[in-house]
Backbone:
């Protein structure tokens, strides 16, 4: 069965600090997809990034970067020079190719608070 | 573009009442899902559909029914509301298969008294 664990329930940082959100997953599939979503205080869910299981290249997009490591089943998300607007709940999610159903298993989320 | 539209945004019910949460998408997506979000528990899958006429149960289906008569619409029915169903409900759609991100509606905040 697939499972996503976000061990950090809440993180609080001061503006301009760097912060890393951890995500560990479990799956029996050899082909799978990992996602990060952001839920700001307004409540909507916004897709941030997708990574395929066969692509371990890490990615940087502005202040955001993602570190995918199959050896440790981790897909961590780092925000550099955090800003107050980064305050949100961040969800990591997993989809398995074998299910082929457009649905995901979500972690419980990490609430990030960035203080000015 | 409207994307995924959920109605109503808020609803208060009494225990035992029934109601339907509406979900419509205008992106011609095959795949649609319903999740519930409870504090500290992330999103849990209730039901999902891989196309018109096809639905299946997710992780927490008890107390809910769905149907998918058209590609665009995927309503969620609460048969007899219970306080344990107090939650925020999200409908999502995706373009296809497992490698596509999901597009979410704005959610329905449901309270059962």
Residues:
């Amino acid at each position: 069965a697939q499972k996503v664990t976000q061990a950090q329930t809440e993180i609080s940082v001061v503006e301009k600090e760097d912060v890393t959100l951890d995500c560990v997953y479990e799956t029996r599939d050899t082909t799978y997809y990992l996602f990060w979503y952001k839920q700001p205080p307004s409540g909507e869910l916004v897709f941030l990034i997708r990574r395929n299981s066969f692509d371990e290249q890490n990615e940087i997009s502005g202040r955001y970067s993602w570190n995918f490591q199959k050896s440790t089943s981790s897909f961590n998300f780092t925000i550099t020079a955090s800003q107050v607007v980064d305050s949100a709940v961040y969800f990591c999610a997993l989809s398995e190719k074998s299910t082929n159903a457009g649905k995901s298993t979500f972690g419980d989320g990490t609430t990030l608070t960035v203080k000015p | 573009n409207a994307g995924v539209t959920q109605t109503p945004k808020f609803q208060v019910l009494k225990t035992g009442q029934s109601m339907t949460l509406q979900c419509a998408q205008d992106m011609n997506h095959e795949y649609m899902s319903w999740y519930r979000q409870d504090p500290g528990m992330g999103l849990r899958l209730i039901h999902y559909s891989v196309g018109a006429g096809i639905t299946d149960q997710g992780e927490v289906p008890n107390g809910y029914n769905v149907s998918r008569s058209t590609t665009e619409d995927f309503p969620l029915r609460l048969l007899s509301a219970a306080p344990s169903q107090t939650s925020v409900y999200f409908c999502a759609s995706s373009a296809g298969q497992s490698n596509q991100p999901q597009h979410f509606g704005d959610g329905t905040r449901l309270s059962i008294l």
